[in-house]
């Protein structure tokens, strides 16, 4: 079940280049063409911000009645209106109208309309992901997808519209590419660092959208050791690779093409570094955070190494584990709570690809 109001920014970077594990994934892709994706789509920004202003109250009334949880979440939490978000409240509708005519809002909405007036390709990518998801996770709830403008407050998020569906919000203002200088919005916000914002474009919408769903199913990692975090990230990436089997490695791992190549050419060296530095069972998060969280680099490694090299190794370990246990399903993988068991039974023996 989705966790209501579970907000997370999701970041990625794509290069149109293929690597070996993409080919392996494609070789084992199931036929899901007969599976109903059970998705529905709502373009909230088109009605609330791009629709006719004299129809605003009507739009608000309709959404409050048909999508009450999204309505409360969007206006109350994401846009942060403090007062009661009642369509009949002239103070609320007046504030919303003022927001519509804010200069930055008008600029961003114009860019959203230019870049995302037509999202049929994105819908097809995400709906295809839903077919694979239902193949691997039969019985999953239908999903409502909501595109929106959110004043750069949150990126993608997951919530529960009701007990019978899940909802995923997609903040289109986080996918405008070079049309927006994100750093200028808030120079002190690390989420707008260049190594993160370089991924804020159309190519990453599907991956970031499904990533929030997978993270919700995995839950929060409770282990304190580096290996716990590494295997958790490996699980996430492995499941994503099955839901989005055509995604390029550079999308999946959120590396540039050159960073992706460096990791593959130095896989054994990365693993040896973690072992030699005795990081595997380290519990001081500050000593391993840059290997599993967003960072411009991996401390102690050559400058060509990206941050999050531990995520790359975690994926390789989980892949080896699943290859050796073909009877284990993705729900089984989620249910396995022992990172040590996964490591041991993977019999992971990396080699550099050079």
Description:
It is a single chain. Helix 10 packs across helix 11 and helix 11 crosses helix 18 (339-346). This protein has a five-stranded mixed beta sheet with strand order 1-4-5-3-2, sandwiched between helices. The chain is globular and about 65 Å long. The chain is α/β, with parallel strands linked by helices and 354 residues long. Mean pLDDT is 90; it is low at 1-26. The protein folds into two domains: 40-218, no CATH class; 226-346, no CATH class. A hairpin with a 2-residue loop joins strand 4 (157-162) and strand 5. It has helices at residues 20-27, 44-48, 56-66, 68-78, 90-100, 103-116, 120-136, 182-185, 194-197, 205-218, 226-243, 249-252, 257-265, 267-276, 285-292, 309-324, 330-335, 339-346, and strands at residues 6-7, 39-43, 143-148, 157-162, 165-171. It contains 18 helices and five strands.
Entry keywords:
354 residues; alpha/beta; five-stranded mixed beta sheet; 18 helices; 50% helix; globular; disordered N terminus
Radius of gyration: 21 Å
Question: What strand order characterises the main sheet?
Answer: 1-4-5-3-2
The count of DSSP E runs of length 2 or more, i.e. the number of strands, is 5
Q: What is the H-and-E element order?
A: EHEHHHHHHEEEHHHHHHHHHHH
Characterize the main sheet.
5 strands, mixed
The number of helical elements comes to: 18
Distance between the termini: 44 Å
Principal-axes shape call:
globular
């Amino acid at each position: 079940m989705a966790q209501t109001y579970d907000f997370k920014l999701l970041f990625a970077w794509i290069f149109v280049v293929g690597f070996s594990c993409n080919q392996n994934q494609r070789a084992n892709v199931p036929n899901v063409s007969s599976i109903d994706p059970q998705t529905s789509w709502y373009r909230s920004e088109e009605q609330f911000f791009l629709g006719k202003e004299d129809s605003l109250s009507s739009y608000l009334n309709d959404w409050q009645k048909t999508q009450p949880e999204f309505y409360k979440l969007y206006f109350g939490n994401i846009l942060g209106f403090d007062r009661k978000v009642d369509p009949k409240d002239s103070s609320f509708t007046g504030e919303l109208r003022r927001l519509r005519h804010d200069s930055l809002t008008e600029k961003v909405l114009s860019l959203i309309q230019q870049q995302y007036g037509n999202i049929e390709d994105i819908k097809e990518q995400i709906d295809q992901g839903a077919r694979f998801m239902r193949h691997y996770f039969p019985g999953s709830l239908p999903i409502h997808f909501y595109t929106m403008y959110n004043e750069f407050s949150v990126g993608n998020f997951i919530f529960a519209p009701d007990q019978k569906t899940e909802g995923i919000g997609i903040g289109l203002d986080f996918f405008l590419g070079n049309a927006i200088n994100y750093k200028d919005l808030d120079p002190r916000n690390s989420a707008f660092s260049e190594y993160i914002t370089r991924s804020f474009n159309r190519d990453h919408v599907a991956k970031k959208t499904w990533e929030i769903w997978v993270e919700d199913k995995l839950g929060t990692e409770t282990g304190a050791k580096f290996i716990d975090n590494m295997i958790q990230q490996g699980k996430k990436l492995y499941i994503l690779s099955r839901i989005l089997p055509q995604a390029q490695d550079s999308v999946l791992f959120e590396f540039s093409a050159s960073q992706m190549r460096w990791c593959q050419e130095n896989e054994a060296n990365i693993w040896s570094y973690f072992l030699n530095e005795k990081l595997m069972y380290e519990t001081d998060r500050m000593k391993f955070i840059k290997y599993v969280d967003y960072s411009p680099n991996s401390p102690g490694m050559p400058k060509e190494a990206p941050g999050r090299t531990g995520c790359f190794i975690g994926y390789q370990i989980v892949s080896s584990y699943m290859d050796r246990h073909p009877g284990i399903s993705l729900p089984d993988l989620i249910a396995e709570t022992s990172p040590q068991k996964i490591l041991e039974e993977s019999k992971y023996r990396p080699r550099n690809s050079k």
